[in-house]
Design brief:
This protein is an alpha/beta fold. It has one domain (9-221): P-loop containing nucleotide triphosphate hydrolases (Rossmann fold). Helix content is 27%, strand content 23%. The strands form two sheets. It has a six-stranded mixed sheet with strand order 2-3-1-4-5-6, sandwiched between helices. Strands 7-8 form a two-stranded antiparallel ribbon. It is globular. The two termini are 16 Å apart. Bound molecules: guanosine-5'-diphosphate (GDP) and magnesium ion. Magnesium ion (MG) is lined by residues 50-51, 66, 68-69, 102. It is found in: Late endosome; Membrane.
């Protein structure tokens, strides 16, 4: 076990997944074999390391030379997630089908990629610790999220990536934590190259999103459904509610 979330990985490795496979159950899963379809989206300026980060999470390796992402792409993974309960008690476990959406940071793809914000339940917002501008642009990305995400306060984790390049660092941990705190976001310093905190970020976001969904379900006493929505007598309700980081 490598984390609080007790990730039992069954990597479905689906490189170059097409958005056409998204939506309900895709061609890899049937309704019966998972409890939740969870969609996360990585965003941030070009070259901050979004593609390498997701590749490191899925394949546990660093591939330094990716071509720029064109539009959107996604990777998938199966895992069992245990929501940490109060007082360290292990909560219920859920079978998760996780889709990790990768977006292009370039302006010319903006309208395409923001269209995908609406569908995601959690966001991994990255900047490059060695690139001041990518840090300053965090504010713009947060505005984009407020406009295009499913609600005004979606679950977001802020990542200062390329932490392995300590000698080239332009943004101090203190400055980054300050902005994270100001916006109420958990902050992690990550490295897609060494893997530092990469899995932790995804697990923390899962905790936040699952907690939000549990609260929704508890509130309504409705049975679970896929795609982050609750099913009741055949009808679908949007998932919504408030969340708190459990990590
Ligand atoms: P994206 O445009 O945000 O998807 O960025 P990429 O994942 O394509 O990465 C852009 C460049 O940064 C590539 O040359 C990567 O090898 C490099 N890179 C990404 N993450 C890291 C990291 O954590 N450490 C270091 N040293 N380089 C990284
Ligand atoms: Mg990319």
């Amino acid at each position: 076990m490598e984390s609080d979330s007790d990730l039992t990985m069954d990597d479905l490795g689906h490189p170059n997944g097409s958005p056409a496979h998204s939506g309900s159950h895709g061609n890899l899963a049937s309704a019966a074999d998972y409890d939740y379809l969870i969609k996360f989206l990585a965003l941030g300026d070009s070259a901050v390391g979004k593609t390498c980060f997701l590749h490191q999470y899925i394949d546990k390796e660093y591939k330094p030379s990716f071509a720029s992402t064109v539009g959107v792409d996604f990777r998938e993974k199966r895992l069992v997630h245990r929501v940490p309960g109060a007082d360290g008690v292990v909560g219920r476990s859920h079978r998760i089908h996780l889709q990790l959406w990768d977006t292009a940071g370039q302006e010319r793809f903006r309208s395409l990629t923001t269209a995908f914000f609406r569908d995601a339940m959690g966001f991994i917002l990255l900047f490059d610790l060695t690139n001041e501008q990518s840090f300053l642009n965090i504010r713009n990305w947060l505005t984009q999220l407020q406009t295009h995400a499913y609600c005004e306060n979606p679950d977001i984790i802020l990542c200062g990536n390329k932490a392995d390049l300590e000698d080239q660092r332009k943004v101090s941990e203190e400055r980054a934590r300050e902005i994270a705190e100001k916006h109420g976001l958990p902050y992690f310093e990550t490295s897609a190259a060494t893997g530092q905190n990469v899995a932790k970020v995804v697990e923390c976001l899962l905790d936040m999103v699952m907690l939000r969904m549990e609260q929704c379900v508890d509130k309504t006493q409705r049975p679970f459904a896929q795609n982050g929505k609750r099913l009741h007598n055949g009808e679908m309700d949007e998932y919504d509610g408030s969340s708190k980081c459990a990590c």
